[in-house]
Amino acid sequence: MKRAAPAAMTKAPRMQPVPRAAKVEAAAVKPVVVAKAAKEKPKAAPATTISHPKVSVMVVEAIKALRERKGSSLQAIKKYIAEFYKVDADKLARFIKDYLRSGTEKGELIQVTGTGATGSFRLPPKNPRAPAAPKVKMASPPKKAVAKKPAAAEKPKAPTKKAPAPTKMAKTAPVAQPKKQLRRQ
To answer: Is 75 part of any domain?
Structure first.
């Protein structure tokens, strides 16, 4: 097998010197040709039209339709989108993950478990409980202070006596038990 020579080693054909007058004519002609070529190019039609809604809309619809109590996983969302919208979920996987991350940051989705694009997601409640406004108390007329009656000769509390601690039994020396004799036969 012959190896191709590197580009630096190949010999380029020598160009013939061009007379100065020819250079001027070529320079004058070039801009005209370029300008005509630019005008003649037809406008390119859009590559493809998108046959599905935005990924954010698809993900929200998938979570609504799945109605899972503990939230919908990324796999379940992809599966629903692939079946319902007839698109390739593998091609949209990056966009789905991006929306799951940004949706949780914006508060459009709630991440029940996991971090990032993993775990399970659900929609926030439609009517989030508004924090109850603090009740403003009306100024009520001041109540008349009731004079306290002096307490009748308070009795000093007698200190409670603790029950005496049970006396400890004196330890007796352990009774020696006779050793069992082994039978020899």
So the answer is: yes
